[in-house]
Batch of 3 targets.
Target 1
Amino acid sequence: MSSTVLVTGGAGFIGAHLVPQLLDRGDRVRILDNMSRGDRGRIAAWVATGRVELVEQDIRYGGAVHQAMTGCDRVVHLAAVSINKSEADPYESIDINVVGSNNVFKAAADHGVRRVVFASSASVYGDPETLPMAEDGPLHPLTPYCIAKHTGEQLLDYYSRRSELSWFALRFFNVYGPGQKPTAYYTSVINHFVQRLRAGEPPVIDGEGAQSMDFVHVHDVARAIVMALDADAARADVPVNIGTGIDTSVAELARTLIAAVGVDVEPQFRPRDVLVSRRAADISRALDVLGWKPTIDLRTGMQDLVDSEIA
């Protein structure tokens, strides 16, 4: 059944992959975005279909959020200030990521929205004590961004207990793919390696390259969001990891990208003390609750990224 979905931050990286999936299944989409980083050309093409509306506003303004929420059945909340900017300006981070999120959730509850899907983050775990990282494991958010994501989950729980609203907080791991900004905090290493490889230079790795991440393709992330919009309300009101369950070391990433770019170089290792951290998601809840599992493996995804015009 088609519906009207409000997507905050829908002009951004994940929105660029989510909105087409929503349109393909017959939904109407209202994008609430301040367009500080959005692609106006892409938005204009969507609006021209007659099924997408842009509300150029900021989630910090409660009245604007309430107005944008009118007539929407479901909500995807993507809008946020990134993790690196949150440490540079904690005030703005709390203002947007906590106050803004509260505006979205409160408006959703007031308007009788039945489902909110919130873009949370694996950063709520901090440095994991064990792998894989499970939703019920210990949380140690370390920055204003991470703290705000955890707070957002708690706010959703608060409003769901006082309304008909149900929710999923999708804890995204290291999201990558075509269209990502070069400055993306957790995956900037990809862009750095690709730039060097395209210049015929080897990637330079600190230490032995044992530090790892769980890279999940943005197409699969968008799929997870769509599936969370439809999932059974009886299974809702929980956080859900969205990753691959595979911890890919920086050294392995470098070799995968060397093959994708097609250059004959070897990674260079820069001896230095490095805090080796590892990340890998326990994705059993995603399969159980959403019916979701990743479909794009690292090699295919990195080739897709390298081949894209925006990579």
Target 2
Amino acid sequence: MEQKTRILIVEDDMIIAANISVQLSNLGYEVMGIETRGEEAILHATANCPDIILLDINLRGNVNGIEAAEQIQKFKRIPIIYLTANSDEATFAKAKATRPHAFISKPFNSLNLQRTIALVVDQIKDNDMDTLEVSDNLEVLSDRIFVRHNGKMVKLLLDEILYIEADRNYSNIVTSNGNYLVSTTLKLVQNEMKNHSFLRVHRSYMVNISKLDVVADNHLEINRKVIPLSKSFKEHLLKHLHTI
């Protein structure tokens, strides 16, 4: 039997929240709860890890929906669908920066809700297939990663990582304190760490750009290690270096 998709509703209008809850239950989803404040949403999401969060942007209280999303994503990568009656560009830009899966504008109808959630569920299933290998061996948080090493998950601070080298279907994570080989391809590692200061510079290498000692025409150096720099990645790297 297929497990139900679990959804947390964060909406401070209880009439709207209750209506959404009934609709989702009728569609076969599991409603994990209703929260009306950003603070409670953060606690609920980090403790219970729902599959999707329906999150109102304009929550009353000290923490709005965007701020709640930012805090949740420091600990859990949970797909977010924003509910909003506010369409101004500044709010949209702030919300977009949290990388939501979708927006639903208020007022919305049942069909709009149904179709949006169905599309996000399909995205989650596709991503699960693509990142299954990663999830078992690599967990990326805001300032650290956990890698499976010698049968246990080991914490590595992102600032300790110098570069990551591909080794067929494995990745060798090189730190200032040692190396960690994980059974995850470099492409999947790249997808997981794209929001951090790591860039692909060659088909076989990703580097921590804060650790670069030398940038030459066709190679880089980190801690005396010479790393090849491909032409196809060079422009992207230089753009990032100019912004830091």
Target 3
Amino acid sequence: MDTRITPLVPLDLKSWIARQLDQVELALDRWVSVDAGADLEHHAPADLMAAMRYAVLDGGKRLRPLLVLAACEAVNSGLKHDYLPIEECDDELARRGVIDPEAATQGSGEAALRAACAVELIHAYSLVHDDMPCMDNDVLRRGKPTVHVQFGQASALLAGDALQALAFELLTPEGSAIASAQQAKLCRLLARAAGCAGMAGGQAIDLASVGLQLTEDQLREMHRLKTGALLQASVMMGAVCAEPMSVARAALHRYGAAIGLAFQVVDDILDVTADSSTLGKTAGKDAEHDKPTYVSLMGLDAARAYAQALHRQALQALADTGLVDTRILQGLADMVVQRSN
């Protein structure tokens, strides 16, 4: 079989991100609605749906959906050793090549889009609950009043609950959009990342750590669960939506772990270096609430150096995947450490 490949198509990361964000926003707008259509059999109370839509739409970096979609494309690009050795190819351009990743994702696009939206719904629900008075008691999120400020605490609690449930409804559609085995894998990855061994567990540690001096290992474990688990799951869910390869899976897992922790380190840095208008949320709240952070533990310069070290770990993990094209995942790793909000 002729496995030669065409030249690597030029990548415009900004254009790729814009295209993916457009489709994610359209899908969220369609699925988080009072009448979501035939594929989702629910008709939610209008007031509850208004709070849900307020929590999800028109805001946020959408990093988690982007990671799902990027990982799916990367795995679909194939493993380098699947192709003929360069000396056996008569096309010199093959040394730089992969097939067009957009063509490669045909057949996995529906699963990836649903997974991308599902992980964003889980993220949105967590923010709604985290901002409530019983948790972080914050009044600003994504540049606008938090959900409990806008709709009241009871509505915010219910909106978060409903968003979590809707995430798993998206992953289990009727028909053949996602194979049953694939549905089970996606649900398990997302449930584990969101539950007591992931995001919820990390938040519990965070609440119990106020005013305490944690060690670096303890702080890393807290953020591995609270922030890193869902980012890591986003990468792995994208791989599942394609054709998961055992060789690439472990390295993708390490990539997700590195950028998950890097995201939180940068968050801690921005909390003391950026203002509320830039962040879209209340700046300086960690220090105000006496929460342990990488800056309070290591100092600002050391925290910045640690973020760069995690970035290097992420890029090395991508190199270790053996995948032909990981440029988008590389670009997203760059964004994580270079972001200003």
